[in-house]
Amino acid sequence: MDYLSIILFVISTCVTPGPNNVMLMSSGVNFGTARTMRHVIGINVGFPLMLIAVGLGAGAVFHRYPSLHDVLQVVGAVYMLYLAYRIATAPTVDFNAKSGAPLGVMSAALFQWVNPKAWVMAVGAVLTYASASGSYALDVLVIALLFCVFGSPCSMVWVFFGTFLRRYLAKPRALRAFNVAMSVVLIVSLAPALHGLVAKGRGDAAAHAPARPVAGEVAAALDRPA
Asked: For FRET with 66, which of 129, 153, 196, 221 sits at 20 to 30 Å CA-CA?
């Protein structure tokens, strides 16, 4: 196993923008670093566990019942739209107060199962770096551990960035604008998943469309003027 390549893959996928990081930055702005830590823990424990489940069995279940994965994607899209709405309409908070609550450990961990980017990362990591030989299960566990170890600092980058922005968003109007902008970014991050669902739906519709009889095509050709 090429550990350096895996570590670079982990860092590049975990530090780039996505639903998790957008929500972490928003939480950092609204709740600060300390109160956002349980969100960080939920992501960096929940995603490795999801990767292990996908690598050791869940992937086979979804391969056998692809409609189940489609349903999960739809549920995830709806839930992310709900989260975007919650972020956009969140009441402006006093940064020194303890009102409101960031996402908890369990909620953040379960969110990984409906996060489109998490699915791409998990499947991509397993297919690319896990050996097909007898060490496959061990490779999956090692990849999950590397995501936990190197993914956590990447998450903290976004939390610190959000906390840094707090000084510039002390005014309610500025904080409201930031929350609306973050909700829009979260919705935009859904675009690839929604596009995939629409394209798949069109493909299924085309596959089930009644074929035009060959005899009808011949008759139509004969009826055309020369």
From this structure: 129
What is the three-class DSSP state of 101?
coil
Length of the chain: 226
Domain count, the chain: 1
State both tokens at 100: 């409101």
Domain that holds residue 86: 3-223
Nearest-5° angle of CA 168, CA 182, CA 114? 145
Which alpha helices (DSSP H) does the chain contain, by range? Answer: 3-15, 19-53, 59-64, 66-88, 105-111, 116-129, 136-165, 172-188, 191-208, 214-223
Can you tell me the distance from the alpha carbon of 51 to that of 129, in angstroms, rounded to the nearest whole number? 12
Please, are residues 13 and 153 in contact by the beta-carbon 8 Å criterion?
Answer: no
Between CA 133 and CA 212 the distance in angstroms is 48
Mean pLDDT, 10 residues at a time, the chain of 226 residues: 85 84 88 92 95 80 69 72 75 56 89 86 82 78 94 93 80 76 74 67 57 43 47
Which residue type occupies 137?
A: A
Q: Which tokens hold the place of 98?
A: 């303890």
Instruction: Give the predicted TM-score (pTM) of the model.
Output: 0.67
**With contact defined as beta carbons under 8 Å apart, do 212 and 120 qualify?**
no
Instruction: Provide the greatest CA pair distance for the chain.
Output: 83
Task: Judge whether 23 and 107 are in contact, CB under 8 Å.
Answer: no
pLDDT tens across 140-183, in order?
999 999 999 999 999 999 999 888 888 776 677 777 787 788 77
